[in-house]
Fold these 2 entries.
Entry 1:
Amino acid sequence: MDHNTIIRERRSIYTNMFSGEKVDDRIVSEMLENARWAPTHRLTEPWRFVIFTGDGLAKLGDFQAQAYLQREGDEADPAKQKKLQEKPLECSHVIAIGMHRDERESVPEVEEICSVACAVQNMWLTASAHRIGCYWSTGGITFYEGVNDFFGWGPEDRLLGFLYLGMPKSDRWPEGRRSGMEDKVRWER
Ligand SMILES: Cc1cc2nc3c(=O)[nH]c(=O)nc-3n(C[C@H](O)[C@H](O)[C@H](O)COP(=O)(O)O)c2cc1C
């Protein structure tokens, strides 16, 4: 595939579109290698990833359910708790996406978030180019306080969501949906 095709055919493939078959770890390694080449101001390389697969998926599910219960207390909805516990099990791999804040705070935090997003895009493009199902979720425990320890990250680091990976059950790759660029771009000559 040329670069235009890879970029324009990147898609969100959701867990209900996964077959249950495992993604080859070598593809996940390739995704991580490509993440490494994302742009990074002052070369801080702020991306951090934890890959959950095999028994790790249940560990993530258990942690999510427990974090939800702890946060909601008596208000916790058992259906939501169950969903948080079981969601990772629908995937082949779940990659927790972290932003590391370096001690020197070399660049503004927003730049580090942008850099991690570029790394995620590199991974997502790689997955789509291999026709691996992938999407970025900022649901679940993404914006919870006090979850960094579980991922082995420091207090200033930030969880930016999860990449869910799985083999698609259908050969039909979804169509994309975007509006035109006319009202979003202005050329000044
Ligand atoms: C930062 C970010 C967070 C996202 N979080 C979610 C999410 O929590 N749930 C979800 O269903 N999709 C999420 N998405 C995926 C978008 O819904 C998806 O990109 C959009 O529908 C366009 O579809 P496409 O990726 O196939 O082009 C997220 C995307 C980005 C960039």
Note: Residues 11-12, 135-139, 161, 176 surround flavin mononucleotide (CB under 6 Å).
Entry 2:
Amino acid sequence: MPCPALPEGFDFTDPDVYRSRVPLPEFALLRRTAPVWWNAQPHGIAGFDDDGYWVVTRHQDVKEVSTKPEVFSANLNTSIIRFNAAMTREQIDVQKLIMLNMDPPEHTRVRQIVQRGFTPRSIRALEDALRQRAGHIVTQARANGSGDFVTDVACELPLQAIAELIGIPQDDRARIFDWSNKMVAYDDPELAITEEVGSNAAMELISYAMNLAAARKECPAKDIVSQLVAAEDEGNLGSDEFGFFVLLLAVAGNETTRNAITHGMHAFLTHPGQWELYKRERPATAAEEIVRWATPVVSFQRTATQDTELGGAHIKKGQRVGIFYSSANNDPEVFDHPEVFDITRDPNPHLGFGGGGPHFCLGKSLAVLEINLIFQAIADAMPDISLAGDPRRLRSAWLNGVKELQVHYG
Ligand code: HEM
């Protein structure tokens, strides 16, 4: 389907586009004119043996794709919409060991096991420890006077929360952080992370987690690792499955929440009325609006298992379908004035954590808790925080990432 108003060759997964911005005006154009649009690509540029993918832009269509795993598979080409072009098919297929890239019934089995670690009760159990950690992070940053909000504040709580959840010893945490950074930054030349460094980091993290699992099997402790690997029967994870689960948590739980916190801080600092309102009233609706506004995961993909229709487009079996959460979260059919950052927005049916269906974010409650705790700590300890520079964005094909945000802590 041609879309004449888009420049020739425009690609919604081009990492260079995201270096400066999320293409919201282009999404709006598609929602109005061609809500499910074929984005042609040079053969193989995304790492797949094909010439493009469908761009799904409307809220209702993103939900439809997300909730029909029998028609839209997360497994055939994984959920990641763009790999490095140099990636081999074997390397892509290895990613299928991660639950994000599984279909039922495998996915259902793994999800049933791991969600034991994410019950409302287990998340509530972390609250006091995380509140203390949030307070500590903010106090330390404040002592610096000014600095990079991303490394001083936004990175810290998500990392500590996952380490806390999994029971990773304090001394090992910096290594986990380093590995997780290396795995997602391969598109950004400034960070000088090659494909090889990225996959080595993934291997090291998996092997670290497998050793941890083996140790806990031998000598169980009161943590989620022990719970998930306790016995060698059908209802538990093997050490290798556990290794890949930790790998997923390190990316899914760190980068996303970090970027939600950074974009949230930037939104507050550029919308001072909202920051005043937050400091005064601390509305419970704020965290969800921060996630809608930030939409840290711009898109994931599925692959059609059969010929099908969606939003007026004819999708062929085997074609890739990109679900663009950033577009869905700005759909004026669903949100009044989506361009307004409104921390009292209610209802707020955003798709920042996914469009429903089997893969809906497992860590949503934890992420919302972390966002609430960190902004409460900031509002308490440094209410006069102010901007000292523009955000520097990550070059990435599917993450809305900020790698630096200079601030005065006040
Ligand atoms: C603001 C922060 C976060 C955002 C925006 C976010 C977003 C997402 C999205 C869009 C998905 C895919 C949904 C789908 O395909 O339908 C997802 C899946 C997932 N998320 Fe999150 N996430 C966040 C935080 C977390 C945290 C803190 C954790 C864990 C500690 C986590 C763990 C996961 C896991 C394990 C999956 C895969 C679930 C599955 O395949 O069944 N996420 N997340």
Note: The pocket of protoporphyrin IX containing FE is lined by residues 66, 79, 99-100, 111, 162, 248-249, 252-253, 256-257, 260, 291, 296-297, 300, 325, 352-355, 357, 359-363, 366-367 (CB under 6 Å).
